[in-house]
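Hi team,

Below is the intake form for Helix-turn-helix domain-containing protein from Variovorax robiniae. Please confirm the fields before the structure is written into the shared record.

FORM ID: S-0412
PROTEIN: Helix-turn-helix domain-containing protein
ORGANISM: Variovorax robiniae
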Amino acid sequence: MDIHEDALRAIKDMGAAAKQGRLAAGEGQAAAGARLGVHVQTIARIESGEPGVAIGHVLGMLALYGISVELRPSAS
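The structure came back. Fields below:
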């Protein structure tokens, strides 16, 4: 199954936002993993924008750092 490029971009953007939030909080990946209840490798995968990470983990990490996600229709 191919993932649309817009979806891939959104996943990468969420990962970058999660990393920025973690760094702004002064936490390492291990601390983020402990808070979220996932392995440190999952944090690294979220931050790199890997599309195979469970959406609950991605949204959970964003929520840890007070980052919300807004859904809106695409401009197509």
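SUMMARY LINE: The chain has one domain: 5-64.

Thanks, M.
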